[in-house]
Write a structure and sequence with these properties.
heterodimer, A: about 400 residues, alpha/beta, B: about 525 residues, Spore Coat Polysaccharide Biosynthesis Protein SpsA, Chain A
Chain lengths: ~400, ~525
């Protein structure tokens, strides 16, 4: 009896290892520092309570400007919609592990579509005042078991200029909350220690529509489309991208291996699928949707942004997938890329071909297992259970409600 | 995303709450003052060409720090960076960063350019090797539906003769280029010789060189029979060694396309492809006459004959095999070549072996999942006259048509040979070098042989007409072969120590070959 059962388990094991070995010829499993967590299912591991805020914080803003749904900060809106219909949502706040505030601070757009962050601190403050006065859960922990989605340039620093953002720092009221943001840079004021970095929003249907067959040979060595100099905002040069993009242009504009220009071709997505390396240099902020596009199209991302923290850094081992180049090494970029051994390049392509990798970078409508929404929930679940010390005693106050620039204190 | 205009308006909005306590008159005065200041700043910025508000800020607000955190390296074509700007920004950043100091500083950085911003050829080569390796991997993983590819077993009957090197190199290069494992079985009539062995040793693929005892006869018909026996000999090797893969018949004078190798991977047991027949060898008159006749036939029948005769499977509208296209020998009745050096069209058999491919398991002994419509290969009696590979089957209707049901021509059949008594240097190496040397510029004979006038007229009409028949280069080669004495001075002149201008001879030679092609 024992022999038969052990024999069957051995056979099962062999079968699975054989099938996974075949699978490995094309892709490889991805396991980051937190383990093999990309395919974890968050359902059942955490409960999220969604506050009911008046629609002036969310729906009215969207009605005023529906462009908020398609720009790269749309993650905040889609996260709200996902949570409303997700099985992790609970209507009983007493059993919730995490609390979510549906507020769209980035949905205040200029005529050209760029978000203005000037009112966002006030909006956030007013929302927090609302939830702290209507529900007891904020005061219980001063927001330590609340999370907010702040996908703007510098996260909860709420400014597009880096000096100004650093000056402001993270909004004082959000100091204890968990921030889900796209911005990530080590040793930076605007990245709090417990934050979860997420990829910027890239439209999944648009990208799926431009897929080409995978046997079309990759013939472009390095590909990049975008600005190198921002003449409107940085006329003298040297500020935009800390000079890194300009260095790429000046050093490699004559190099036939580098297909770089400022064009806006209609075949942008198809060209990425015909390239081996795609440059993802920093702009005014270190992150960009190019990373998501490169991952979806199987092009190895070359990340030129010092100290950047990439999305889901604990779940995805980015050093094994992408190539990191220091900004000071940009003039030697061609030497760096050609000296990577071909086995390493093929391994990176196999990792990129893993469908769970591509799924984790996207925000599909409706949500699918393994997508970015689920990775965010996985990240939140990994932070559970909450430490007992976050629960404050009666009357204890940690946050300073009057900190920050005077202009923020005005009601919204 | 910096919006300078909105930035200014924001500054305005920031400052106005501070002044809300002052009375109305001072408020308006301040507003006017700021307006004037703004206009002044804008004008100065226009003149200078950059926003100098940071400079002003620096002079008004902070004290310069002694340490300069980031000194940008030299960039020749930009104006030298304002070093005073950097300390200001660095101090501002330093003052505000409460956490551990970051080595990434906000502010103006230099644009690093290396001294010679041009591609390095060694690196370009490395990059191309990387690209090639990636593409090969792509093909292996994604190409042909990602199925594991089977080995290609090529069967080539050959024998040592003048054109052997020409033909065998062609087949060899095709096999070397095929992105699959190749086993090349070369059966040589007259026994395995060093000539053949030295040619196929350069292939780099696995070769099996088999000697066949009979010598190759001189008539095309007998040759066909001997070739069949040689092929069966090779198939016996496949059976004995239990080689696994797809067996294809690569006659040494045929031409294969790369798609052929991709397509035959799809065969399950026994497949057939369409073969283009290049039957026109021999002199131009024959060609012209046959062309005219065919054109007449076409006009009469008004049928949709393709200009290139094709042998292969015929399918009905639902892509099922219903018959075979065979070569129409009627136009050539009585005018086809009999001996191998006849100046006439060489005709193929009804169904050439090269158009068939089979799974090597058909030939194996143990009938493990071998379909019952396949004859047992071991029991085949060769003396009964095996004409085409269909004799290996009990039921020829089970043949799979390949290449979108025979619509794609994937290889071309051709037979061209030199005269039976033609001589060639063994291994095509002239050793020791020839003794007679002639000065390159003063050869007693012209490099371009003079044209007989009659031939020119016929060939002119040929080029005007619908020239779909490939006038093969063997015509040139045959002439070259016959006038081999003319060709040898080319070699002589190369070794000639007295040659004054080697370039002239080469240009003369190239112009003569161009002239050849123009004639054709």
């Amino acid at each position: 009896m024992m022999n038969r059962s052990s024999l069957s388990t051995i056979l099962l094991f062999l079968f699975f290892s054989a099938s996974s070995a075949e699978h490995n010829a094309r892709t490889e499993r991805i396991s980051g520092s937190a383990g093999d967590v990309l395919e974890d299912n968050p359902v059942g591991r955490l409960k999220v309570y969604v506050y009911e805020l008046p629609s002036k914080y969310n729906k009215k803003l969207l009605q005023k400007d529906p462009r908020c749904l398609t720009h790269m900060f749309a993650a905040e809106i889609f996260m709200h919609r996902f949570l409303l219909s997700s099985p992790v949502r609970t209507r009983n706040p007493n059993e919730a592990d995490w609390f979510y505030t549906p507020i769209y601070p980035t949905c205040d757009l200029t005529p050209t579509g760029l978000p203005l962050p000037f009112k966002s601190p006030r909006m956030m403050r007013s929302a927090i005042q609302l939830i702290s006065s209507n529900w007891p859960y904020w005061n219980r922990t001063e927001g330590a078991d609340h999370f907010f989605v702040v996908p703007h340039d510098f996260g909860a620093c709420f400014h597009y200029q880096e000096e100004k953002a650093i000056e402001r720092g993270i909004l004082p009221l959000l100091k204890r909350a968990t921030l889900v943001q796209t911005f990530g840079q080590r040793n930076h004021v605007c990245l709090d220690h417990g934050s979860i970095t997420i990829p910027p929003f890239a439209p999944p249907q648009k990208m799926q529509a431009h897929l080409i067959p995978p046997d079309i040979p990759r013939s472009i060595f390095v590909y990049f489309r975008g600005l190198f100099y921002d003449v409107n905002n940085d006329p003298e040069g040297g500020y935009y991208a800390r000079g890194a993009r300009a260095a790429v242009w000046e050093n490699f504009k004559n190099n036939p291996l580098f297909d770089i220009s400022t064009d806006h071709p209609t075949t942008y997505y198809e060209d990425m699928q015909r390239s081996i390396f795609c440059l993802c240099p920093l702009g005014w902020a270190p992150w960009s949707p190019r990373l998501v596009e490169a991952v979806v199209f199987g092009c190895i991302p070359v990340i030129i942004a010092d100290d950047i923290v990439l999305p889901f850094a604990d779940a995805i081992p980015w050093e094994e997938i992408g190539v990191f180049v220091a900004e000071k090494d940009v003039p030697e970029l061609d030497t760096i890329l050609t000296s990577i051994p071909t086995e390493v390049i093929l391994r990176k392509q196999r990792l990129l071909a893993n469908p769970s990798m591509k799924r984790a970078m996207l925000f599909p409508q409706p949500a699918q297992p393994g997508d970015a929404f689920h990775q965010i929930l996985n990240g939140l679940a990994r932070k559970l259970p909450h430490d007992r010390s976050i629960y404050l005693r009666e009357g204890e106050k940690v946050l300073n409600w009057t900190a920050g620039p005077v202009g923020d204190l005005k009601p919204w | 995303m910096k919006l300078s205009a909105l930035h200014q308006s924001y500054l305005n909005r920031r400052r106005s709450p501070l002044d809300s306590s002052a009375d109305a008159s001072s408020k308006s005065f301040l507003a006017v003052f700021w307006l004037v200041l703004h206009c002044l700043c804008c004008l100065i910025s226009l003149l200078l060409g950059f926003r100098f508000s940071r400079l002003v800020f620096f002079f008004l607000v902070s004290t310069p720090s002694s340490t300069n955190l980031y000194s940008p390296p030299f960039r020749p074509d930009l104006p030298p960076p304002r070093t005073d700007l950097n300390p200001h920004n660095a101090t501002a950043v330093e003052a505000k960063t409460s956490s551990s100091s970051s080595r990434v500083v906000v502010g103006r950085h230099g644009i690093l350019i290396r001294p010679w911003p041009h591609p390095d050829p060694v690196e370009v080569m490395k990059a191309h090797r990387i690209i090639e390796r990636v593409q090969r991997e792509q093909k292996a993983v994604f190409g042909s539906g990602g199925k594991s590819s089977r080995a290609v077993i090529a069967v080539t009957p050959t024998y040592a003769r003048t054109f052997q090197a020409l033909h065998l190199n062609g087949v060899m290069h095709s096999l070397m280029l095929a992105p699959y494992d190749v086993v090349w079985i070369v059966v040589e009539a007259g026994g395995a010789s060093n000539e053949t062995a030295s040619i196929i040793a350069k292939s780099g693929v696995r070769t099996i060189h088999v000697g066949f005892d009979q010598r190759m006869p001189n008539t095309w018909e007998d040759r066909g029979k001997v070739e069949v026996l040689m092929r069966l000999r090779a198939l016996r090797v496949v059976k004995e060694e239990k080689l696994d893969g797809v067996v294809m018949f690569a006659d040494d004078s045929n031409m294969h396309s790369m798609e052929f190798f991709d397509e035959i991977q799809n065969v399950k047991w026994f497949g057939a492809v369409s073969v283009g027949i290049l039957a026109h060898s021999g002199n131009a008159e024959e060609m012209v006459m046959s062309m005219d006749k065919r054109r007449e036939m076409e006009k009469e029948e008004s049928s949709s004959l393709s200009s290139l005769p094709v042998q292969g499977p015929a399918c009905n509208a639902t892509d099922k095999l219903i018959g075979w296209h065979v070569f129409n020998t009627l136009p050539y009745a009585g005018k086809s070549a009999v001996y191998i050096d006849d100046v006439a069209a060489v005709l193929p058999q009804k169904l050439e072996w090269c158009g068939f491919v089979l799974n090597s398991r058909i030939l194996w002994d143990e009938a493990e999942s071998k379909p019952e419509w396949v004859k047992e290969f071991g029991l085949l009696n060769e003396n009964e006259g095996v004409e085409s590979p269909l004799s290996l089957l009990n039921d020829p209707s089970m043949v799979e048509p390949l290449g979108s049901c025979g619509r794609q021509v994937l290889l071309w059949w051709l037979r061209v040979e030199a005269r039976a008594d033609s001589k060639f240097p063994p291994g095509w190496v002239i050793d020791p070098p020839l003794e007679i040397t002639v000065a390159a510029k003063r050869t007693p004979w012209p490099d371009v042989p003079p044209e007989p006038p009659t031939k020119k007229k016929d060939q002119m009409s040929l080029s005007q007409g619908n020239n779909v028949v490939v006038i093969p280069k063997q015509q040139q080669q045959q002439q070259q072969q016959r006038s081999s004495k003319v060709r040898k001075p080319k070699r002589r002149s190369k070794r000639n120590k007295h040659e004054a201008k080697p370039t002239d001879t080469t240009t003369q030679v190239s112009s003569s070959t161009k002239h050849h092609q123009e004639r054709n």
